[in-house]
Please model this.
Amino acid sequence: MALFDPGAAEFWVLIAFIIFFGIVFYMRVPAQVTGALDARADAIKKELDEARLLREEAQALLADYQKKSREAEEEAKGIIDQARREAESLATETEKQLAESVERRSKMAEDRIARAEAQALAEVRGSAVEAAMKAAEKILADKVSGAKSNDLIKRSLADIKAKLN
Model:
């Protein structure tokens, strides 16, 4: 048995190997390695949990911002629709007021024209009455003379004035 011969190199390798493993087990190196690995695994698990929480928070924030964005878009659309309705209402009201203003001005112009026509007609009648009275006075003066003519002229003029006015 060359393995248990103290002069053989294999014997000393076996002894060194046994001493090495004895020291390793005595110093609890496997437990320390396992502890270190477990601690590292726990740290990695904790980091993964934190990353998962951060991701969930980020997704919640994203959803919240998307919701706020949709609400802002809807509010903007509502404001635009309301502004459009108000503009249409204002345009309709303005058109109505413009039509009323045009109608009022047309009516005032027609009234002015009617008054001008009535005034012109009254002036023409007045001129016609005066011309008729002067013509009648001249004719009567030529045909009738004296006190009787004056009396007749006055009555005729009064009759003409009453009938023409």
Summary: Residues 11-164 form one domain.
